[in-house]
């Protein structure tokens, strides 16, 4: 489960009391990509767990039209999908 302070950082324009699943999936996917370092750090600090990461990567993998800011980020996300789901 993504803690409220992390949700505030990444989904600042949405009501954090609303379940994250109710945020439009394309928005979720883009924010996960844009703010991946926050999620990676939260995982390393054991704030979120492996199931949270799998959920995040699953949401990202369902949207081919994510706008990656750079080729490196696209490479990282595609490798995450391969690592966690293949």
Given helix and strand content, the structural type is mainly alpha
Radius of gyration: 12 Å
Write the element-wise H/E pattern from the N-terminal end onward. HHHHH
Q: In what range is the share of β-strand residues?
A: under 5%
What is the rounded distance between the termini? 23 Å
What do you see in this structure?
The protein has 86 residues and is an all-alpha fold. The protein has a domain at 35-86. 62% of the residues lie in helices and 0% in strands. It has helices at residues 4-10, 25-34, 36-44, 50-61, 71-85. The longest helix has 15 residues, at 71-85. The chain is globular, with a radius of gyration of 12 Å. The protein starts with a helix and ends with a helix.
